[in-house]
Amino acid sequence: MGGRPTPEVLYLHPSGHLNDLVVPTGAVSCLNAIKVPRAGRYAFEVSDDEIRAARIVAMDLHWSVGLPGFVRLVRQVRAIHPRAVVVAGGITAGHYPRALLEREPVDFVIRGDSEVAFAALVDAVLRGRSPDGIANVYGRDLPDPPARRMTRAEFDASDPLTVDWFPTYARVTDWQSVAFSQGRTLPVARGCPFRCPTCYGSYADSFGKGYIIRSPTSVVERVRQAQELGVRHLRLIVGKPGVRALSAVIGALASAGPFRFEGSVGLYVCTPPSEDGLRALDEAFTCPVDLSVVPPEEHVPRLSPEALAEESAAWERVARFAGSSRRIHLDLWATTSPVFQRLRRELAGRRGDATDREDRERRVTVTLGAVWLVTRPVSGGETVGLDLLHDAMEPVWTFYAARLLSPSLARLLRPFQFLDALTEDPDALPDPGGVLTPFFRRMMENWRRHHVPTLPGIAFGVVPVTLRPAARVNRERHGTRYWGAMGVVGRGDVIAAGGTREMGAVADHRGVTLEGPCPWPPGRGAVAVIPLPLDQGATGRAWLDALAEDGLVVIRPARGSANTPGEVSVRFTLRVQDISAALLDASGEALAVGRADLGYYETSPRAGSGGA
Fold first, then answer.
1. Is the pTM of this model over 0.85?
2. So where are the chain's domains?
3. CATH number for the domain running over 9-150
4. Residue 56: which residues within 8 A CB-CB, separation 6 or more?
């Protein structure tokens, strides 16, 4: 631990999210609310010794997609350290406090505002006192606790930015990512007066009544803190405050600024700023400012016709301002196909002449955020059972594995990009026909059911292939990049192929591993990886050739190992957006290693995300 005291509280972030490196801001502010030695680790990096040394292990069940990884991590912690006090929190945990206590070996679940509750719980556990009666803290042998909202003063005092106790997160949080952005997050508001099923309002019932907004003074202090910490990207969760409250926050930032960030500042805000507010926002920062908004016609409860017309007109004014602004970008973040298509048509009709069209397209965009309709609990909505939620999210890894290991499936899935900000509507995709049709139909079935295009039941096999002497191994295909011994070959590069062996898939708290034996490829050979038919059909040369139309992912032995007899073992280790590969001999020695990634990060994931 670098000479620091052994942490009494260990925070762990589970694996299996759409971006494993993003940490919920509430977890950061909870750990900053305690004054005892603490440490943070990702599930892929924590050691057994670190788990054994902690008295309290805290972990988040924040986004519903992380439930399977959370379950595996909890059980791993309990197996290693049976006496640890395990605490769960996060917006999804807040919907299932009793179910989690009954189903999983956790000791406490915090529901709602957590910072004050977590600090009180940690103090009670470390002092050997009963936590009975601590607001918002559920325990297996405790009665249901009283619910308590934070005061504005407590919210102002919360610190979601300091992360020196979590070294890896401190290092990777400023990486530039394509989606589900890295960066520190500052909650300006907690809760929402609306209950939109695609946004934070959908979780409002788990926080209780009320809507808290930071004071303008606190917002300025925290933005200044972020600037002093050297934060590259800052995200502000503003929600839908009244116009007066929003104007007060923006005005305070403009008066205290301009603030300087190397990257950008994002505001998730559904209240249209006034024209004075927009000018103030333009002056408050020297970097790009991104406004992300759920269109008012998608708000729940629905706005009256008069209110809808007024807000739509206000956002029209914001769009016109952004179109000529020095730095403001507006993203209308539709979540349903009809609204997305209508906004796209209207935006296209408002484009200026060719000389300024490119700038306008960059400054005002419409994207489809339908992934936020992912199966999950929502306030006032139909209850999603914990078992159903787990089963729906368990195959999320298949979306990434398919893109990384099969150029054919990568082409099929590429319109989904990284799910959060689509530029085209997946529901309009045509059936590709041929061998890909069963994969297409299964992914679309799950997209329409859960809003994640997963391929449950998919299996991958490995097959030894002999390549032409002049075979060219490509390093990029359909957005996937390959490194080391991995690459893509074309159909005409394969001279001969052996029998296909299915790999087994094992999921643990760190991720998913695919592994299996394969005969050693003769001559100038390689090992190709292919998806197996969903109907368990034949996997002969015809199947291989059909998939090879888009190319085959191969791993090639290093020079000098071509005469190794017998079988080798192939192992692929998936860490969401990247996968590491190893070709191993009978003794476990690596004959070749490689990596594939989706170009998700501007900075290579090698150091921080568990890649090879």
1. yes
2. 9-150, 174-373, 395-612
3. 3.40.50.2300
4. 8, 9, 10, 84, 85, 86, 87, 122, 125, 126
